[in-house]
Specification:
With 476 residues, this protein is α/β, with parallel strands linked by helices. The protein is built from 21 helices and 8 strands. Helix 5 runs antiparallel to helix 6.
């Protein structure tokens, strides 16, 4: 921001300096201040009406502002008026990829790189190839060609250059569509080996899941008779480290469904439209393997309130997520969408409407019985002596599973330090565990401090009544 102020001061002194105006406009774009950026680009065009950099910049701003159609028309005009301006061709390639047109994207990309080799981008080129954009593909860019093989089954022929060889690799179908989604960091859907018996405590949470998820999924015909489909969306919320991911896997195990866990990094992409495509492919893959549980961890990052977003790209992705949950284009019958979040109040309210994440389940810190069971599991493969699980569990009130693990880590480190000095195995004692328990503060308390405010003052719908009940607070 200081640099922008300095540039503004320089422009005030030299208002006709085009390079300075373009530098300031670029700075505003990077700061997501699109109105200010466009104003500076327009200032350039008043000085030089055909300036291709300013015109291309305005096209990019229009696209980032959600005006994709106008942006495409603008950049096409730049390419017609200034055919030697490489960035316009590159931007046009990005727009073509956003429409999943690999053939056109490759044509525009090749034109851009031929004009300016510095624009070469192997990551982007790989995406173009995956969309069917082969070198010289023309109108048949979407077809898949299998290369001829010799008698030994090896692909025959030599390639003129590295790019031709790379194109041949993709054309041969090495990344077959819908295979495993490994190209976006996802593994094959797996049958989870975890069920409720292997999850300690959480009795009330399990019962809520049975009533809201398991029984509808296990009695599809009965629910169909009432016009209801199995599946839908459920939001698990609560303090971090309390087992939301584990209970999600166990839910899939209970209904013997495929389980696919999706992280934010597996969806977000720097290229326009790519994130939406990835999200759609993930939903399609899960639908094809129903019954399936599609689990989104930290879903608040993917489904944030659109009012808080400054870029249209984030809002477009949220709209895509909503459309996939609605099943507007494809039925989600047999697909259970589970979201986990520590901050449900940060979700866009559209996600909490009927048919989406309309069922909320509070996952509190483990109770005394669950904490004792967690302690037994953590002590099982360690040299622990004199352990009173119940006494330690009572001392660890409000501790999450992750907090209990931290207590064990500290006790083990202390025992290891003694063992290194003596050269002998030093056991982890129950007394030392109790001591270390006093050194660790439960991470859940900070969460409850924030949650209390939302539950008391932003809870008109009653979504967070379970939080108040857990804290022993009467709703005003």
């Amino acid at each position: 921001m200081k640099d922008l102020k300095a540039l503004e001061a320089a422009v005030a002194v030299s208002p006709d300096n085009i390079p300075l105006l373009l530098l300031l406009a670029t700075g505003y774009v990077e700061a997501f201040s699109f109105d200010e950026a466009r104003e500076r680009y327009e200032q350039v065009l008043r000085l030089e009406p055909a300036h291709p950099v300013a015109k291309t910049g305005i096209a990019e701003i229009l696209n980032l502002s959600g005006k994709g159609s106008e942006a495409i028309l603008r950049v096409e005009q730049v390419c017609a008026e200034s055919p030697e301006h490489a960035p316009a061709w590159f931007l046009r390639a990005r727009f073509a990829m956003a429409e999943d047109n690999g053939a056109e994207a490759r044509e525009f990309y090749d034109r851009a790189v031929s004009l300016d080799p510095a624009l070469s981008d192997e990551v982007f080129l790989k995406k173009i190839r995956e969309a069917g954009g082969r070198k010289g593909a023309g109108a048949e860019g979407g077809r898949k060609r299998i290369l001829p093989t010799d008698a030994g089954g090896n692909q025959a022929g030599a390639y003129r250059d590295r790019e031709d060889a790379d194109d041949a690799f993709f054309e041969a179908g090495e990344l077959a569509e819908g295979a495993s989604l490994s190209d976006i960091g996802l593994e094959f859907l797996q049958k989870t080996d975890v069920n409720f018996e292997r999850v300690g405590g959480m009795k009330q949470v399990k019962e809520d899941i049975r009533m809201k998820i398991l029984y509808p999924m296990q009695n599809k015909d009965l629910f169909a008779a009432y016009g209801k489909k199995a599946g839908g969306g459920v939001l698990l919320y609560g303090p971090p480290g309390c087992g939301k991911t584990l209970i999600s896997r166990a839910t899939a195990g209970e209904i013997k469904a495929n389980f696919l866990s999706v992280g934010l990094h597996q969806i977000l992409d720097m290229w326009i439209g790519s994130s939406e495509q990835k999200l759609h492919r993930i939903f399609e893959f899960a639908r094809q393997h129903a019954p399936a549980v599609l689990f989104f961890d930290e879903v608040d990052a993917l489904a944030a309130d659109r009012k808080d977003l400054r870029t249209s790209a984030g809002r477009t992705l949220i709209n895509q997520f909503l459309a996939e949950m609605d099943g507007s284009n494809d039925a989600n019958d047999g697909l259970l969408i589970l979201g986990a979040t520590n901050a449900p109040w940060h979700l866009d309210s559209a996600f909490l409407r009927p048919g989406r994440f309309d069922r909320l389940i509070f996952v509190p810190p483990p109770d005394t019985t669950a904490r004792a069971e967690i302690i037994r599991i953590m002590a099982a493969n360690k040299p622990v002596t004199g352990l009173d699980e119940d006494a330690l569990a009572k001392k660890l009130r409000d501790f999450s599973g992750a907090d209990i693990s931290a207590v064990f880590e500290r006790a083990v480190e202390a025992a290891l330090e003694e063992a290194m000095k003596s050269g002998k195995l030093v056991p982890v004692t129950g007394k030392n565990l109790l001591k270390k328990a006093g050194e660790v503060k439960p991470s859940t308390r900070r969460w409850f401090e924030s949650a209390k405010n939302y539950a008391l003052y932003a809870n008109q719908s009653g979504f967070y009544d379970d939080v108040l009940e857990y804290m022993g607070i009467t709703k005003p």
